[in-house]
Input
Amino acid sequence: MKRIGMLTSGGDCQALNAAMRGVVKTLYASGEEVEIYGFLDGYRGLIYSKFRMLTGKDFSGILTKGGTMLGTSRTPFKTINDPDENGLNKVEAMKQNYYKLQLDCLVILGGNGTHKTANLLREQGLNIVTLPKTIDNDLWGTDMTFGFQSAVNIATDAIDCIHTTAASHGRVFIVEVMGHKVGWLTLNAGMAGGADIILLPEIPYDIDKVIEKIEERDKRGSRFTIIAVAEGAISKEDAALSKKEYKKKMEKYPYPSVSYEVAAAIQKKTGREVRVTVPGHMQRGGSPCPYDRVFASRLGAEAGRLILEGQYGFMVGYKNREIVKVPLEDVAGKLKMVEPGATIVQEAKLLGISFGD
Ligand code: F6P
Output
């Protein structure tokens, strides 16, 4: 008999349900007797012992469903060791609940912050297996996270829609893409959507270079320009500021987000009409794309196999086209960013895409 706890933490994404289903289907298929405890709303459920016993029925028909059937929340790692408002030691509470339920293992689905806490729980002696979830694709130790491809599809659709209206009006259009502090989503959606300029956090932009590209297109007779801007994009001037100086600047920041700053600068310097579109949380919503359904199922199957073999302390990831297990201590606390010199960036430049650098 295996007693498995399961939770989803951090921002949701597509294919969380598919991944959980993959784990549970594998466990059931093995013929091993299993009890599944689904903790609600991320680590919060584990801290406050809020859970649901799950059976095969709960995992039926969820392969295609977006969101997470367990609910999720953000429980910042930064304050995980601080007592809660009632003085409760959160880490001790999680351990106690794990032992009280006599769990053999916790399956944790999450992104960067989630993995730091998962690794802490491992250090504290709990058996942990994790699965890499996030539309940002910024988890170290895996070439791909589930949710990413679905979000690329949605962000690409947004850019595609903007293309036709931008072409009709001859305007400059900015589409702001999620991704937190990394540019994977913007880079991929930008290339897939045929963006002319792509601004990423990893490649600070020079607004004059951005304008140069717009004007070059004008001269060639292109009536419009599409700019895919990562929500974490940063100008060269801002990137040169110290952390303190940057924080001070942001206290008086007059724009809702960086795209509006880029738009205002282009408008001021060129007099061109610029429009901003922010698809926002749409990028995390809806059904997982077929790629993510297959990918999350494969990751889930491998997690199930590790559990059956009693192999703990790993994230199941994807490296060089293989599903692999990666030690949690290697994953926690590291960001996988776009290398400015990466071949994909070079290829995008060969295609004539400007990164504003
Ligand atoms: O990490 C996933 C993500 O969607 C990021 O792309 C984005 O910056 C962030 O979460 C938004 O967080 P929230 O849903 O808390 O606003």
